Amino acid sequence: MESNIRSYKGIAPKIGNSTYIDSSAVVIGDITIGDDVGVWPLVAMRGDVNHIVIGNRTNVQDGTVLHVTHKNKANPDGYPLIIGNDVTIGHKCMLHGCTLGDRILVGMGAIIMDGAIVQDDVLIGAGTLVPPNKLLESGFLYVGNPMKKARPLKPEEQAFLLKSADNYVNMKNDYLGL
Ligand SMILES: CC(C)(COP(=O)(O)OP(=O)(O)OC[C@H]1O[C@@H](n2cnc3c(N)ncnc32)[C@H](O)[C@@H]1OP(=O)(O)O)[C@@H](O)C(=O)NCCC(=O)NCCS
């Protein structure tokens, strides 16, 4: 039977220690996943026309799609997808060719498009659309379609960014029986 974690053009995903990948998630090609990551049911990530990097202690929740944009003359690097440490990516998000820092929560159903950069410590509300090449500044809440900078994060929201990642590390440990 074909594995749900598979090579593309001879490049196999690299997966860190104590990382949980649900058997219904699909991980293909040039993808580097850190330690203590949780990849939940029905996630699709495809590192085919560019690469994907996911940091440590990040979680990618159910039904999320991660993809990238190819390299070409006008844009020699294309758009890889880079996700930092302690990031929570909610259910059914679409992250395409963007760059995320550390301690970010991407609300359920959010869409983040090519070239967008999300700095550390940002909360993105459920259903938010982040258009291409936007910069989301550290310490703020963004919501809406298209996204708007809503307000600075409250201290408890800031603290929750790391707490959320912790919760998901604990949950994936339960699933792994650790
Ligand atoms: C945005 C969010 C952080 C709440 O922020 P808040 O400032 O406390 O929002 P409030 O509940 O006080 O609502 C303030 C206004 O924003 C609106 N609002 C709330 N969430 C919104 C969202 N995601 N997008 C757009 N508007 C939103 C409310 O309707 C309200 O509008 P009103 O003043 O016209 O009635 C929260 O709703 C959210 O989206 N969290 C993400 C949760 C998630 O997806 N987690 C991952 C899964 S585990």
TrEMBL record:
Source taxon at top rank: Bacteria
CDD domains assigned to the protein according to its UniProt record, in alphabetical order: LbH_gamma_CA_like (cd04645)
InterPro entries named among the record's database cross-references: LbH_gamma_CA-like, Transf_Hexapept/Carb_Anhydrase, Trimer_LpxA-like_sf
This protein's name: Gamma carbonic anhydrase family protein
Annotated organism of origin: Thalassotalea eurytherma
